[in-house]
């Protein structure tokens, strides 16, 4: 005798729910473990696009914690440091005309109406396409979120291997 149609449908739905749950777990767990091992983002990295300002000069509005910008009254007060692939750029506190006409790493972090970083790359190339990483750092700045940041963890496989004791 064949089981009633309703019983067959119920059994199929029950099996399909378990298959769906298994599929979700098979996909979700590896992705979650991978994302757990990614390094935290670096707040000092300047993400483009950088605005062309003329000559070799580019303009960017960084959000650097507690950075003090140069002003007309205090043209050398900024302590901002700019790096290109980890190498310092400079000199700092340069005039727009120097940055645009000469370039080669010159920069200025100043406040007119808005606070902008005016800079040139080390080889006067386009920072949007040269593939280099630029960082703006205020040496005296303290990360305001340091106390709540989660320290990076080891990938889960290393944790698992530490828990397993191999005896020879």
Protein described:
With 168 residues, the chain is an alpha+beta fold. It has 2 domains: 1-38; 45-140, no CATH class. The protein is built from 3 helices and 8 strands. The strands form 2 sheets. The protein has a 4-stranded antiparallel beta sheet, with no helix packed on it. Strands 2-3-7-6 form a 4-stranded antiparallel beta sheet. The mean pLDDT is 81. Keywords: Membrane, Transmembrane, Transmembrane helix.
Secondary-structure content class = alpha+beta
DSSP summary: helix tally: 3
Number of domains: 2
**Average pLDDT number:** 81
Net shape = elongated
Main sheet: strands, sense, barrel? 4 strands, antiparallel
Strand order of the largest sheet: 1-8-4-5
Strand content: 15-25%
Rg computed from alpha carbons, rounded to a whole number of angstroms? 27 Å
Low-confidence stretches: none
| DSSP, total strands | 8
């Amino acid at each position: 005798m064949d089981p009633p149609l309703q019983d067959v449908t119920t059994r199929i739905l029950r099996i399909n729910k378990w298959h769906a749950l298994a599929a979700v777990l098979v996909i979700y767990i590896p992705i979650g473990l991978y994302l757990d091992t990614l390094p935290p983002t670096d707040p000092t990295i300047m993400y483009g696009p950088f605005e062309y300002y003329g000559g070799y000069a580019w303009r960017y509005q960084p959000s650097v914690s507690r950075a003090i910008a140069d002003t007309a009254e205090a043209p050398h007060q900024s302590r901002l440091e700019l790096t290109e692939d980890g190498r310092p750029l400079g000199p700092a506190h340069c005039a727009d005309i120097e940055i645009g006409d000469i370039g080669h790493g010159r920069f200025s972090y100043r406040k007119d109406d808005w606070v902008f970083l005016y800079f040139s790359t080390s080889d006067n190339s386009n920072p949007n396409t040269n593939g280099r990483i630029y960082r703006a750092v205020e040496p005296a700045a303290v990360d305001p979120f340091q106390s709540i940041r989660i320290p990076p963890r080891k990938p889960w496989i290393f944790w698992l291997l530490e828990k397993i004791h191999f005896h020879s």
